[in-house]
Amino acid sequence: MNLNDLANLGQIIGALAVVVSLIYVALQIRQNTNAVRTATAQSVHEHFAKWYQLVAADTELSKIVATGLRDYGSLSEEERVRFIATFMSFLSYSQNAFLKWRERLLAPPLGWGGSLSS
Predict the structure, then answer these.
(1) Tens of pLDDT along 67-94?
(2) Which of 12, 50, 95, 117 is least crowded, fewest Cβ atoms below 10 Å from its Cβ?
(3) CA angle, 25 as apex, 19 and 26 as ends, to 5°?
(4) What crossing angle do the helices spanning 59-70 and 3-57 adopt, rounded to 10°?
């Protein structure tokens, strides 16, 4: 084997190393994307669970929510404030989940489903 053959062999080995590196980077990016989606889904679920727990743990708030959903007009001013604040937090969590879905950080089964048209 002469020097020219060794140089060609070196180039082939170098090219194979680049291809292997690109495959490795692609796999790492895919793993990272899955990890981000999982963390985002967990965060969204925790927010909604926190909201449900807030309503369920407070008997008075539970009554306000039930009454407000049936007959908002029958609530006192203080009860209306609590009712609105409670549902504003729910809407905030919903908006956050929607934005994460729109940014493709939530998989369809964890978001609102369907496809997102570009």
Answers:
(1) 999 999 999 999 999 999 999 999 999 9
(2) 117
(3) 90
(4) 90
